[in-house]
Amino acid sequence: MSRSSPQQRSPWAWVPSVSFSQAVPYVAVMLLSTVMYKNLGVSNDDLAFYTSWLYLPWVLKPLWSPVVDLFGTKRHWTVLMQLVSSAALAAVAFTLHLPQFFALSLAVLWLMAFASATHDIASDGYYMLGLPSQHQQAAFVGVRSAFYKLAMIAGQGGLVYLAGELIKSSNDPATAWSVVFGITAAIFLALCVYHQLVLPRPQGDHSTAKTGALWADFVETFRSFFRKQGIGSIIGFLLLYRLGEAQLLKMAAPFLLDPRAQGGLGLTTSEFGLVYGTIGVVALVLGGIAGGIVISRFGLKQAIWPMLFIMHVPDLVFVYLATAMPTSIEVIAGCLAVEQFGYGFGFAAFMLYMIMVADGEHKTAHYAICTGFMALGMMLPGMISGKLQHLLGYQNFFIWACISTLPAFFMTALVDIKPGFGKKQG
């Protein structure tokens, strides 16, 4: 089969669907599992601690990211990991009626997380090959974020809503979630087949292995990353940009689902799927698109401070919700929409910053290292969030989460951003 350049097929034919498929296993591992375990009676402490450990494959993926660079094509790795993830999604569905469902489902989710992390390495590299110019990358960063979040709507919104309705009709959470994971597996398999057929084959998508120099290439990949100018500030920024959000995210679902007697808002699973997984994520998508437009217009250096404030200040709505305890579903949905819009808006800046840091030789592996530090910044705070919430209660916990956003402002003041990076030229 002859190779065709990425320009021979519009990026709109594959950027949205690859972004969507990049999110599906992540949504299942980090979001669907949280609500599922809550429905199945797992405590907040165990839920937060063990699901946070599922971040570990994303933390460690830089250790095997050079393998994706050195062997095979990014296209091949992308499609293969989609196939593995679809099988893992199906396997989760079979574990939920077994006596040791918690341990067994976590083991399968670990496999899925590993496949998803590898898929991220390959697809992120594929984006940079298929969208070679900085302007294209900036123009599509909002699209990537938007369709990534659309997968969250389909998962945390539509599939969680479906699970809630199945629980109502059957009064059997295990069966309901088995159906949900089975449907997700079928959707992901369809995406895998589609991408095998339509993904273009960029000229630069090839193995970079050199005979007799594999270990040297592997070491040089990491050495060149840690030799980047200002590496200490870069790592600090990657770890701390979402410190508050990392804690808030793990406790958002338990807070919305827990009964009011325990300090939660007492939403049903279906209501949660509607207000947080649908309305909230639509706002997240719109925020991501708006963030990409702003960066393309003004450049990352000029836009990052307003985007930082717009991302973190709305976290205060959780303090309001935990204090006022509104009963109106419209008020709750409106508050969540404000917070999620801000998060999506600010996260677009974070994504483009990682692209800027990774730019150059070994860009696929360097981007994977960036996202590994990003995942570590989510994993460690998330692990203790359940314990902190138990000790502080929801109201004080959310106050603490807002205070935890302050290091992001400090690190933003320290990092160096290339003038004009991401700005549309001409």
UniProtKB/TrEMBL annotation:
Keyword Ion transport: no
SUPFAM superfamilies assigned to the protein according to its UniProt record, in alphabetical order: MFS general substrate transporter
Topological category with respect to the lipid bilayer: Multi-pass membrane protein
Gene3D superfamilies, A to Z: MFS general substrate transporter like domains
Main subcellular location of this protein, as a coarse class: membrane
GO cellular-component term (any): membrane
GO molecular-function term, one example from the UniProt record: transmembrane transporter activity
Name of the protein in its database record: Muropeptide transporter
Species of origin: Duganella phyllosphaerae
